[in-house]
Specification:
Elements lengths: L7 E4 L5 H4 L4 E3 L3 E5 L7 E5 L5 E7 L5 E7 L8 H22 L3 E6 L8 E6 L2 E6 L2 H5 L1 H11 L4 E6 L12 E6 L7 E5 L2 E5 L10 H7 L21 E3 L3
Parallel strand pairs: 1-4, 9-10
Antiparallel strand pairs: 1-3, 2-6, 4-5, 5-6, 7-8, 8-9, 10-11, 12-13, 13-14
Helix pairs in contact: 2-4
């Protein structure tokens, strides 16, 4: 018997060590069995082979990463308030950097490092670019969007979840306006006192604002297509020349 209200993912004996070190992924090879039925992305409890509670996460039956941890606190509910706390924490951590470096655009949420596996949110002024790459993130889409709207009431949100890795989670690709105004073809942003133009809708997802700042000093029209970084999912950045 168990007092858990969630389906339980039971680990093979000895495979709880990474969770005890606060690693947020559970691979399929570490799973002994599921107790109860869970839909893709649904919240589950993760327990060791003796039934001891370890974490609460999101179930992903189509992925080799069978679960991703939302919280190591058993008392923490995975609800809209949970996502509001995570987003507020991310904003608080980045405000000082934005003020110091003269930024109006930055990565608000960087997945696991901000306690939100599979979630990437970039801020470009009052436009927020959302990228949901895991089954759990997609399952919680409505809560994540609601939390963003609560913390940033006038924001516009654009979805760039058009990444092939979603297929490994059993998800279709997604792109388009979520709420608010459609971003312009080229959105002006400020970084280190320079003005840049960002293509939110059509840009690739692997370049970086910091690289674009360097590019702004060159007489070029656009970043090289092979520019690669994780700083921003939107690479098509043009120097803004007054």
């Amino acid at each position: 018997m168990t007092d858990s209200i969630f389906p339980r993912l039971v680990l093979t004996k000895g495979r709880e060590k990474s969770l005890l070190r606060r690693h947020p992924w559970i691979f399929s090879g570490a799973v002994a069995r599921m107790e109860g039925k869970a839909r893709s992305g649904e919240t589950i409890d993760i327990v060791d082979s003796q039934g001891k509670w370890l974490a609460r996460g999101a179930f992903s039956p189509s992925s080799q990463i069978r679960a991703r941890v939302w919280s190591f606190d058993r008392s923490e509910e995975i609800d809209i308030a949970f996502f509001e706390r995570r987003l507020q924490q991310g904003q608080t951590w980045r405000e000082w950097l934005a003020e110091r470096d003269g930024l109006d655009s930055y990565r608000l949420i960087a997945g696991e490092s901000d306690g939100l596996p599979g979630v990437t949110i970039d801020r470009f002024g009052n436009f927020f670019v959302l990228q949901l790459l895991s089954a759990g993130a997609e399952y919680q889409r409505a809560s994540i969007v609601s939390a963003l709207q609560t913390l940033f009431p006038t924001c516009s949100i654009y979805d760039r979840s058009d990444v092939a890795v979603r297929k490994k989670e059993g998800l279709d690709l997604a792109q388009g306006l979520v709420t608010g105004e459609m971003p312009p073809a080229l959105l002006p942003i400020t970084e280190h006192g320079m003005q840049l133009l960002v293509d939110i809708q059509g840009g690739h997802k692997t370049a970086t604002i910091s690289i674009s700042a360097i590019a702004a000093w060159r007489p070029v029209a656009m970043l090289p297509t092979n520019a690669s970084s994780t700083a921003s999912p939107i690479p098509a950045v043009l120097p803004f020349l007054p």
